[in-house]
Amino acid sequence: MKPIDLITADVVGAAIRIHRELGPGLLESVYEMVLGASLEKQGYRIARQHPVAVHYDGMHFANAFRVDLLVDNRLVVEIKSVEQLSKAHAKQVLTYLRLLEQPVGLLLNFSCATMKEGIKRLVNDYRP
Predict the structure, then answer these.
(1) CA atoms within 13 A on the CB side of 60
(2) How far apart are CA 126 and CA 49, in angstroms?
(3) Alpha carbon distance 8, 76 (integer Å)
(4) What is the pLDDT averaged over residues 16-20?
(5) Dihedral through CA 81, CA 87, CA 90, CA 95, nearest 10?
(6) Distance from chain centroid for Cα 128
(7) Burial class, 71, CB count within 10 angstroms (exposed 0-12 / middle 13-18 / buried 19+)
């Protein structure tokens, strides 16, 4: 099993290559599909639109949210194609991390001029 930091590096590298090739401005679903396939080609297990359950007050909601990509059942990847990320986008990823009990997530915005500008790494109580 690869360390989470190596998985993160592979995802970031793939995102940069995709952004260079396809450019900004496509729909999020296109970037999700291409990034997922690229990571599968590298040997990763990819779950697209992975359901996130919510438990509240003794109730269970199985499909309350969906994570764009879950890489090797460990890395949450949320994909955006917006002019600018907001604080709400980061909060969304942090909530997914908490609900899925995962340590690290990536928020990737493919609409930036360069992919480097659109990468945000978020952690949920992570210690390397």
Answers:
(1) 2
(2) 24
(3) 10
(4) 98
(5) -130
(6) 19
(7) buried
Degrees to nearest 5, angle at CA 95 with 17 and 51: 75
The pLDDT tens digits for 20-78 are: 999 998 999 999 999 999 999 999 999 999 999 999 999 999 999 999 999 999 999 99
Range 55-63, long-range pairs (CB < 8 A, 24+ positions): none
CA 110 to chain centre: 12
**Domains of the chain, first to last:** 4-123 (3.40.1350)
Structure tokens given for 79 = 């994909």
